[in-house]
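Record type: ASSEMBLY
Status: queued
Input:
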Amino acid sequence: MIRAYHVTKRYGDVHALRDVTLKLGKGEFCYVTGPSGAGKTTMLKMLYGAVQPTEGKLLVGGVDVSRLSKRRLPYLRRNIGIVFQDFKLIPTRTLAENVGLALEVLGTSRDVIDRRVNAVLGIVGLRGRGHEYPPTLSGGEQQRVAVARAIVNDPSILLADEPTGNLDGAMAIEVMEILQAINLRGTTVMVATHDTGLMNRFPFRKLRFEAGRLVES
Amino acid sequence: MSPRLRHVFRRAFRSLWENAYLNSVSAGVIAATTLLFGVYLSVQFNLNKMVDTWDRDIHISAYFHPDVPENRRFDVRDEIASRPEVIKVRYVSSESANEWMQARMPAMEDILKELGSDTLPSSLEISLTASAARPTAIDSFARTLSVTDFSDVDYGQEWIEKFQGFMAMLKLLGAIMGSLILVAATFLVMNTVHLVVYNRKEELEIQKLVGATEGYVIAPFLVEGLVQGLIGSLLALGGLAAVHRLLVERLKDAFELAVAADLQFLPSSYIALLFAAGSVLGVVAALLAVQRFLSKVT
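Status: finished
Output:
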């Protein structure tokens, strides 16, 4: 599902990633871990096309991201769900509208959007709360809404950048359980985190980065 | 309507409502610009019409010496009327000229009455064929009129040519000023739209992250720009109608000139042009603003 061949990313003279080669199969769950500044976020950003490799080749779902044009980028992203540490929800939109946004951009009809949104809100434990607004929710609930938005169009890859970084222990576990459940449905999940406690509780493959290098795979 | 289009329109009208103040500012700027454009079009339209009428009315006014007897005046009229290049000759007596003047300038009625009915000379108004009315031809024709019969021969061609030169200059100045105003207005509207875009910055970034194409992100702003343009043009049209009405009334009151009644409001083709200008201004400003924003979003 994801293949990187000698991928390097430089910002000027600074190396964010150095010669990274890795392979992640369909339906796999893995952590991208390492200290701050190790290159975790850069790796994820590259996977959803926010930055392009300086050198090397990166394939995501068969698409060569290293050569992807700006025009083709939206079509890659429709196959990838993304969850951020700061949730990235629109505070002035209801939960249903936030989640439905990923389907709206595909031109999905209102009926289908309503049906899908209700279903995924159910998966993340927020059934019947679609009319509420993000600021009225706890951090854990907001992150569950973000997860719902990421999976509403049934992507084959889910990327989560520090999804539990802003959450306390119980809420972090709730979110991880949801991610695990999504993975069990066949979605490839990649979670960037440095929370060792969480990685021990939910043991999956680890891709450990240090100073831009992949040191454990 | 396809679901995608429905989403675009829903988002556009929602944003128009949610950012009512900023959108009103944009519509106001478009209205002011379109009003200026409308005033320019109005002036040009009426001046063109005036010149057209004058062109059609080019004739020679030949004023008789006061001592030419009346029967001689009629003979001269008949002789001139028989020439092939002459379409029509009208004899205007001194009394008729006086009456005409009184009717045209009621404010001077008392003065003209006091001066007497023979103040103005009697004259012949000679209408020529189109070819004879050309600048060089009309000049040659005027020279053939007897200096013993006429004290003065007057034809406004030269003046009209100067006026046409003035019109060409006015058009050029209008085009330059119009371009400058258009650039300034586009800049103003663009910056106002930019504020709306920044208000929705988060939403647009998220749309991009979930796979929205640039077209999908831009489309609602274009609809907003179009609506702002149409509202702005409508306001400008209202303003223009008010200015027109005020101008006609004031000119009538101040000068009692018949020309005030001749001032016409813009015809429908010019009004359509006004709406097109407002709409294009709104849409282009919105497009530039969103593209400037999107160029910074990964």
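Annotation: The longest helix of chain B spans residues 157-199.
Annotation: The longest strand of chain B covers residues 86-92.
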